[in-house]
Amino acid sequence: MRIYIREKNGKSFFIPIPLSIASLGCRIASYAIEKSGKNLNQQQRDIIDCIDFNELAKSIKYLRGYRGLKLVEVTSADGDEVTITL
């Protein structure tokens, strides 16, 4: 997975993330939310409950066959851009 960030002033960043680490991060997030879910307010809990991190980790395994797929491509009104590609 590659994350590209371009700011309007011309600076750009590239962050490579191996898919195995992304999958591991999802599993760790699932465990951390189970343990610290009491510390979240109701709005945060509602948002987090919509995400099944274990299923997300499993789906990353299947996405390996789609290298080059753009998952996110966002441009802000200020001109900043973020692109996430497999």
Short description:
With 86 residues, this protein is an alpha+beta fold.
Descriptive keywords:
globular; 24% strand; 4-stranded antiparallel sheet; 43% helix; 3 helices; alpha+beta; 86 residues
Structure write-up:
Helix content is 43%, strand content 24%. The chain has 86 residues and is of the alpha+beta class. The chain has one domain (2-85). The chain has a 4-stranded antiparallel beta sheet, with no helix packed on it.
Tell me about the largest β-sheet.
4 strands, antiparallel
Share of helical residues: 40-55%
Mean pLDDT: 85
Distance between the termini: 4 Å
Number of domains: 1
Q: SS-based structural class?
A: alpha+beta
Number of helical regions: 3
Oligomer: single chain
Strand numbers in spatial order across the main sheet: 2-1-4-3
Name the beta content range. 15-25%
Shape: globular
Count of β-strands:
4
Topology:
Elements: E1 2-6, E2 12-16, H1 19-36, H2 42-49, H3 53-63, E3 70-75, E4 81-85
Helix pairs in contact: 1-3
